[in-house]
């Protein structure tokens, strides 16, 4: 029987690359998710035999509907996140803090709680896409984003100990500077390519940006049978940027 894999925020970017990579395995059934029906249809057309469920995982009303549409689930990949901020560090409003936690923390926690019983039934797996900003201070990263991703990393560590004895593995992937179509880095390169390269050269030991495929390759490993003894871990994919162990 095929494993059912649901990937939130997978109509483009890292989420789409994860879905596309996993779809190459005939033992997986891919279920895409996003808020834009047009983008989801386009993504589905690119990934053979995939399905999609329209819905906003930051909305409780939408989450309830999602929970009813998926009858069986083997692997949940929580990819939704948002690192944009309009405020300078220290001047964030309470609403901006709330939105960041909705986008980067509750978007994972809420969907995990919705599907927890189904994942226990299948002895399934959860993978949360986090960020190195949640591991240590990263210059230029919005504080709201960093703190909410830190909370997500802590959730992975703690909740994996709750789910593990029930047969469900929970792990995370923390990307660094990832370049893909529509990404922040693509916009920065268009604005000043030379400055971007100077920043990367000074902060990343491999002196280059990562790709969405770099992230999806780690996810592909985690969903395979090779990761049977891994639980509560966070895999850093940053080209050697951060110093934390």
Explained architecture:
The mean pLDDT is 95. The protein has seven helices and nine strands. Helices cover 46% and strands 16% of the residues. Helix 2 (37-46) links the parallel strand 2 (28-34) and strand 3. It has a single domain, classed as Rossmann fold (3-Layer(aba) Sandwich), CATH 3.40.50. The protein is of the alpha/beta class and 245 residues long. Helix 1 (13-22) crosses helix 7, helix 3 runs parallel beside helix 4 and helix 4 (94-122) runs parallel beside helix 5 (143-163).
- Note the run of SSEs as H and E: EHEHEHEHEHEEHEHE
Global geometry: globular
Number of strands: 9
| Helix content range | 40-55%
Name of the CATH homologous superfamily: NAD(P)-binding Rossmann-like Domain
Number of helices: 7
User: What is the spatial order of strands in the main beta sheet?
Assistant: 3-2-1-4-5-6-9
Radius of gyration: 17 Å
How many structural domains can be distinguished in the coordinates?
1
Summarize the structure.
The protein has 245 residues and is α/β, with parallel strands linked by helices.
């Amino acid at each position: 029987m095929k494993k059912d894999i649901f990937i939130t925020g997978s109509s483009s970017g890292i989420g789409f690359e994860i879905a596309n990579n996993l779809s190459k395995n005939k033992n997986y059934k891919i279920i895409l998710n996003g808020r834009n029906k047009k983008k989801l249809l386009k993504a589905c057309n690119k990934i053979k035999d995939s399905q999609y469920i329209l819905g906003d995982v930051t909305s409780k009303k939408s989450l309830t509907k999602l929970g009813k549409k998926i009858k069986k689930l083997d692997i949940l990949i929580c990819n939704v996140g948002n690192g944009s901020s309009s405020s300078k560090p220290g001047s964030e409003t309470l609403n901006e803090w709330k939105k960041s936690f909705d986008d980067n923390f509750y978007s994972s926690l809420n969907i995990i709680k919705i599907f927890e019983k189904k994942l226990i039934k299948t002895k399934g797996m959860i993978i949360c896409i986090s960020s190195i900003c949640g591991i240590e201070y990263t210059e230029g990263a919005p504080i709201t984003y960093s703190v909410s991703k830190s909370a997500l990393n802590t959730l992975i560590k703690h909740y994996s100990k709750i789910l593990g004895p029930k047969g469900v593995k929970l792990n995370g992937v923390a990307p660094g500077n990832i370049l893909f179509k529509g990404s922040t880095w693509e916009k920065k390169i268009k604005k000043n390519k030379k400055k971007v390269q100077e920043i990367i050269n000074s902060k990343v030991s491999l002196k280059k940006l990562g790709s969405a495929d770099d992230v999806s390759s780690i996810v592909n490993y985690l969903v395979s049978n090779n990761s049977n003894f891994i639980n509560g871990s966070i895999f850093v994919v940053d080209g050697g940027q951060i110093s934390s162990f």
